[in-house]
């Protein structure tokens, strides 16, 4: 009898230990899932704020990274059962696009200032040369009478043709314009609403 009671107690203790271990495991997984959802929501909000700021002002601050950390890649498995495939794709697209732009930003930031100045000067010299050739080709042959009657020298004509600032958009700006203008925000969509429910916020 004592033997049976001992076996029953041992079996019950083992079962109870297993239940507690499983409960702790699921509690830890739920907490990790909730914490991951909170972080991902913050990362989405931050990334879209930077993109929207650029879209509005057309000026990018190179001290900011669109994707500072990629918590989505590490924790996407927690949300496979909660999000539809197209919703997962949209979040993944935001992160991949942000990381791609960050890589472009890093390359732009690594360029030397002197190289940028040199390139800009070469472009400006080329524009001035083309404008000067155009003015020379279009300007009538000057005569002494024409000069005395008030005809303007070629240099003054060029100054009137050349604007004060000639915008030469860098390649990265064209890329940013294209992406920011076509990007569809998801922070205020049903996707983040689902994540907020998981995060309980």
TrEMBL record:
Name the record gives this protein: Uncharacterized protein
Keywords, alphabetical: Membrane, Transmembrane, Transmembrane helix
Membrane-spanning parts: 6-27
Species classification: Bacteria, Candidatus Woykeibacteriota
Keyword Transmembrane helix: yes
Domain of life: Bacteria
Taxonomic source organism: Candidatus Woykebacteria bacterium RBG_13_40_7b
